[in-house]
Amino acid sequence: MTSSPRPVGQPVRHPDRPPLNRRLAEFGTTIFAEMSALALSTGSINLGQGFPDTDGPEEIREAAVRALRDGRGNQYPPGPGVPELRAAVAAHQERRYGLLYDADTEVLVTAGATEAIAASLLALLEPGDEVVALEPYYDSYAACIAMAGARRVPVTLRPHVHDEGASFRLDLDELRDAVTDRTRLLLVNTPHNPTGTVLTRDELAAIAELAVERDLLVVTDEVYEHLVFDDAEHVPLATFPGMRERTVTIGSAGKSFSFTGWKVGWVTGAPALVSAVRSAKQFLTYVSSGPFQYAVAEALALPETYFAAFRADMLAKRDVLAAGLAEAGFRVFRPAGTYFVTTDIRPLGESDGFAFCRALPERAGVVAIPNAVFYDDREAGAPFVRFAFCKQVEVLQEAVKRLRAAF
């Protein structure tokens, strides 16, 4: 007997089972897509997603053009990354931090920091492992931990109001208490997105001591390493005793040179760790960003004057936005690093960041991101809203004008 044809679009098996893997069921369309669509539909100023509205150094853009014209990188580049970029990453780590890495065995180029995070977690975790991460956290952390079948254990950075203003701080006792016999890995982000916290030397030393004592691996996301302000300093976790051999450090060209669309990132670490990450990475993108890798190699060799000017420019923009938000009635957590400002909306009589951000485009013509999306404990993040200041000063001034008028 010939069976009747199945209607187009009807699943073959398990009609009651949803198409999406259950590990990813909690992750729908990102809030960034939703807020960016709102910005477009309302003509609002988009201070939600963290990408600059101007390009980085002209000589680096021209280096990419030159690589294209010279035929460098137009075909598949080497799996670990082009030798020039791996050498430049190693030289950068030595010059700035005194960290010595072998460019052939201890540096791996990735499709941005997001792939570096994914490949690291997929490589180093097994189902049932626990990962202690600083909450709030970049949303891909939670998704990648889930894809690895591991369990995330958040340690929340708590808001503190003090004489100098307001900031988010890590409770080291809470961090220590979160580590169990099932803990495989610490996932650390400093400078920290979204709070702008930069962990101090003492805090990092305590994290290092804990990792060594409990024999933990550490993945440290340091993509905002060149954006620290005031008296803060960025100190790589791998520089502490016992940490180089257990730490995978992640960097990004997009954040340091304002070419986010190029998607060039990297990891550095001991050979065994980098080899493990490469084993996962090769089955994700395999390779990417060929010509741009040559340009980023030149960018990493730029003189310190570039990084100082870049930092000063972002500091000025931070101060414009932070002051404007305070004048509009927000409580402002002035960031010590990154290019984001977190605010508390309760002084405005608001408490639901999701509702606030969804109404803000119509209300003020500005788009922001509710910090609750970065929390497992949505209640803890509910009153906080993040604004990006990696925009032209005129754009920030107009956003501030709109917010002051609305509130």
From TrEMBL:
<keyword id="KW-0808">Transferase</keyword>
<dbReference type="InterPro" id="IPR015421">
    <property type="entry name" value="PyrdxlP-dep_Trfase_major"/>
</dbReference>
<comment type="function">
    <text>Involved in the lysine biosynthetic pathways. It catalyzes the transfer of an amino group from L-glutamate to N-succinyl-2-l-amino-6-oxoheptanedioate (N-succinyl-2-l-amino-6-ketopimelate) in a PLP-dependent reaction, yielding as products N-succinyl-l-2,6-diaminoheptanedioate (N-succinyl-diaminopimelate) and 2-oxoglutarate.</text>
</comment>
<keyword id="KW-0963">Cytoplasm</keyword>
<keyword id="KW-0663">Pyridoxal phosphate</keyword>
<dbReference type="InterPro" id="IPR015422">
    <property type="entry name" value="PyrdxlP-dep_Trfase_small"/>
</dbReference>
<dbReference type="GO" id="GO:0005737">
    <property type="term" value="C:cytoplasm"/>
</dbReference>
<protein>
    <recommendedName>
        <fullName>Probable N-succinyldiaminopimelate aminotransferase DapC</fullName>
        <ecNumber>2.6.1.17</ecNumber>
    </recommendedName>
</protein>
<comment type="subunit">
    <text>Homodimer.</text>
</comment>
<dbReference type="InterPro" id="IPR051326">
    <property type="entry name" value="Kynurenine-oxoglutarate_AT"/>
</dbReference>
<dbReference type="GO" id="GO:0030170">
    <property type="term" value="F:pyridoxal phosphate binding"/>
</dbReference>
<dbReference type="Pfam" id="PF00155">
    <property type="entry name" value="Aminotran_1_2"/>
</dbReference>
<dbReference type="GO" id="GO:0016212">
    <property type="term" value="F:kynurenine-oxoglutarate transaminase activity"/>
</dbReference>
<keyword id="KW-0032">Aminotransferase</keyword>
<dbReference type="InterPro" id="IPR004839">
    <property type="entry name" value="Aminotransferase_I/II_large"/>
</dbReference>
<feature type="domain" description="Aminotransferase class I/classII large">
    <location>
        <begin position="45"/>
        <end position="403"/>
    </location>
</feature>
<dbReference type="InterPro" id="IPR015424">
    <property type="entry name" value="PyrdxlP-dep_Trfase"/>
</dbReference>
<dbReference type="GO" id="GO:0008652">
    <property type="term" value="P:amino acid biosynthetic process"/>
</dbReference>
<keyword id="KW-0028">Amino-acid biosynthesis</keyword>
<comment type="similarity">
    <text>Belongs to the class-III pyridoxal-phosphate-dependent aminotransferase family.</text>
</comment>
<comment type="pathway">
    <text>Amino-acid biosynthesis; L-lysine biosynthesis via DAP pathway; LL-2,6-diaminopimelate from (S)-tetrahydrodipicolinate (succinylase route): step 2/3.</text>
</comment>
<feature type="region of interest" description="Disordered">
    <location>
        <begin position="1"/>
        <end position="21"/>
    </location>
</feature>
<dbReference type="GO" id="GO:0009016">
    <property type="term" value="F:succinyldiaminopimelate transaminase activity"/>
</dbReference>
